[in-house]
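[step 3/7] inverse_fold.run input=structure_tokens len=337
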């Protein structure tokens, strides 16, 4: 496993980070989830990403059980706050001081730890003053319950505003967690240059585009049995927009010779591709089976020659989504309830 600094800080994280968004606590039985975490540890992964909203808090509890016997100092545990949790009352969502404080303390109990290494604003909250949010984060950092602050799917302007307040409050905002893959490059024109200027890294989710970049979904054919596209507990909903685009599926198949040339699987190629971006500190991978983790970590440390990076661009052509406006669209103007 290779490690990279997270933003302009002294914290190193594993460039393959284990995430339990769509699986633990909902789609996968607990024993299988814990086995996947064990496989991640065995593969050298030290960084683990979750959120209070995943499976309505159950994912955090599963991760806490899986890591409880590990040396805490050898791990980097990330979680998030914003989306609705619990009974979803009026204050069970957003980035108000009340929700942040209550959510962090509940997350610490579920994760069975005294602190988290990275606490992330899961989206931008248009209904709470940014100053209120950042002061609450600062209080948690100064109390030692949070070491660093991050965000997820913030625009370049939001990053700039948040970073300025963090600096004023003497805390470190060092990461952003956006969607990023060879098919979804909306952060490249605005978010990445701003992040490089501010000393913020990307911890990217969906590097395999919900599984589309594995090449298992062929145009005009039914999804393979047992794949995410056949999962009725949420996975199918997440991938359906990609599967409706036959041209995308066709062009993805053109990546197979490139993967073969590098001695990689299609999934490994997709993960290695995002790691070629020097502003990316880590790619988040999930798993429902231990062998998926073992396979994905082989993307760590892979260097893709410039000539092959160009061939990937040529293969995907104009099906790549690049519009930076898509980042702003990921944050609702009103809180979800």
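[step 3/7] decode complete -> sequence:
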């Amino acid at each position: 496993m290779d490690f990279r600094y997270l933003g302009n800080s002294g914290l190193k994280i594993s460039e393959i980070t284990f995430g339990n968004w769509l699986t633990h606590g909902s789609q996968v039985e607990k024993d299988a989830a814990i086995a996947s975490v064990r496989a991640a540890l065995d593969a050298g992964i030290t960084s683990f990403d979750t959120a209070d909203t995943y499976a309505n808090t159950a994912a955090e509890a599963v991760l806490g059980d899986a890591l409880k016997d590990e040396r805490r100092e050898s791990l980097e545990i990330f979680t998030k706050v914003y989306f609705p949790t619990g009974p979803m009352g009026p204050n069970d969502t957003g980035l108000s001081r009340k929700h942040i404080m209550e959510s962090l303390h509940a997350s610490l109990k579920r994760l069975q730890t005294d602190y988290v290494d990275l606490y992330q604003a899961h989206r931008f909250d248009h209904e709470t003053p940014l100053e209120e949010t950042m002061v609450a984060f600062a209080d948690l950092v100064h109390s030692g319950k949070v070491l660093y602050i991050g965000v997820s799917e913030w625009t370049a302007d939001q990053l700039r505003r948040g970073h300025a307040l963090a600096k004023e409050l003497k805390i470190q905002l060092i990461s952003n967690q956006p969607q990023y893959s060879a098919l979804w490059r909306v952060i490249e024109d605005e978010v990445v240059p701003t992040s490089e200027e501010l000393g913020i890294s990307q911890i990217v989710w969906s590097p395999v585009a919900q599984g589309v970049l594995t090449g298992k979904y062929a145009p005009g054919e039914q999804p393979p049995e047992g794949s995410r596209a056949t999962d009725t507990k949420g996975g199918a909903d997440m991938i359906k927009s990609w599967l409706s685009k036959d041209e995308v599926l066709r062009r993805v198949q053109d990546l197979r010779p490139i993967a073969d040339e590098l001695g990689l699987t299609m999934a490994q190629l997709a993960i290695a591709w995002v790691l070629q971006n020097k502003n990316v500190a880590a790619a988040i991978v999930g798993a429902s089976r231990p062998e998926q983790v073992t396979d994905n970590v082989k993307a760590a440390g892979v260097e893709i020659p410039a000539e092959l990076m160009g061939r990937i661009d040529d293969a995907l052509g104009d099906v790549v989504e690049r519009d930076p406006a898509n980042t702003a669209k990921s944050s609702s103007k009103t809180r979800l309830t």
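[step 4/7] annotate
Residues 3-211+277-303+323-329 form a domain with the TIM Barrel fold (CATH 3.20.20.100).
Strands lie at 3-5, 12-14, 16-19, 47-49, 76-81, 116-121, 146-151, 173-176, 201-204, 280-285.
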